[in-house]
Amino acid sequence: MKVALPPYLSSLGSWMRTHGLLIIALIIIACMSWYIYFLQVQVDELRRHVESAYDFSNHDSFDYRITNLEHISNSHGDRLKDLETDTWRLNGYVNRLNWRTMQLEWATPSVTVHGDIPKEEAMPNFNSNPGNVPWPSFPNNDIYIHPGDTPNQP
């Protein structure tokens, strides 16, 4: 037994038969477009996150920190070269003085030098930190003294 459909539904059924594949294809294309757009947004966010880690836009970036450490190590290396040069010069000076002292001892053997260690300290009241040098190794202390601040003592 065949049921008769109203005329508006029968025309809709014929329209669906002729255009059904087109509608399904448009729905699939719309879903794929939305998925591609969603992935592109995620890729852009990942790219922004990665690029922000390797530029100089903020002080937390990886490249900024590495470059800063490189500059610090280069300045320390320069200071060490200067200290090494000064050490070599002082060693040469001390060696020349020792040689001169030995020459004088050979030239005048009758003169004796007493090498006694003094029994009292030259500076008995010496304080290595008189209160105006900060202690940066302790909490809440920095190496800068600001006006009006008194550094904490251990």
Quaternary structure: single chain
**What is the ordering of alpha helices and beta strands?**
HH
Helical segment tally? 2
Distance N to C terminus: 103 Å
Task: Indicate the low-confidence ranges by residue numbers.
Answer: none
Helix content: 55-70%
Radius of gyration using CA atoms only: 43 Å
Shape category? rod-shaped
Mind explaining what this structure looks like?
The protein is mainly α. Among the domains are: 38 residues; 47 residues. It is rod-shaped. It starts with 6 loop residues before the first helix and ends in a 47-residue tail after the last helix.
Which key features would you list for this structure?
mainly alpha; 154 residues; 2 helices
Set down the secondary structure blueprint.
Elements: H1 7-52, H2 62-107
In brief:
The protein has helices spanning 7-52, 62-107.
